[in-house]
Amino acid sequence: QVHLVESGGGLVQPGGSLRLSCAASGSILSINTMIWYRQAPGKEREWVATITSGGSTNYADSVKGRFTISSDNAKNTVFLLMNSLKPEDTAVYYCNGRYRTASSPYTQPFPSWGQGTQVTVSS
Question: Which of 8, 20, 34, 70 is the most buried (most CB within 10 A)?
Fold first, then answer.
């Protein structure tokens, strides 16, 4: 079994910052890719940022220049530093990605989502 646990959300004023964490645990040999998503009320879940095991990153246009994704591979943890937050960043933030186990040479997606962490940007 593998698990994802997101944390670090909260209430912040516009222009403020938050740092989210996502810890993966269980039978993980290595993580290939980690991805942050978010889902605002009444909207579809959307992609926010991706980081590969080699450190390559990609961002949605809506967060580029404001958010930074990083990882601690030794701890199977990914972070999302969010600066210059806007009310439209309000959402539940989730992580997911692809990982390998010792029993397979292929990567696979995490089988379930974590509970997410709520980010609310409001004055």
Answer: 34
Enclosing H/E stretch for 51: strand 46-52
pLDDT value of residue 118: 98
Q: Who has greater pLDDT, 104 or 10?
A: 10
Question: Pairing mode, if any, of strands 18-26 and 77-82?
Answer: antiparallel
The answer to whether 34 and 51 are in contact (CB under 8 A) is yes
Count of other CB atoms within 10 angstroms of residue 97: 22
CB 32 within 8 A of CB 107: yes
Give me the mean pLDDT over the 19-40 stretch. 96
Is residue 51 within 8 Å of 70, Cβ to Cβ?
yes
Which amino acid, residue 22? C
Q: Token pair of 107, please? A: 């990567």
- Say which amino acid occupies 115: Q
Provide the 8-state DSSP code for 53. T
pLDDT tens profile 81-105: 999 999 999 999 999 999 999 998 8
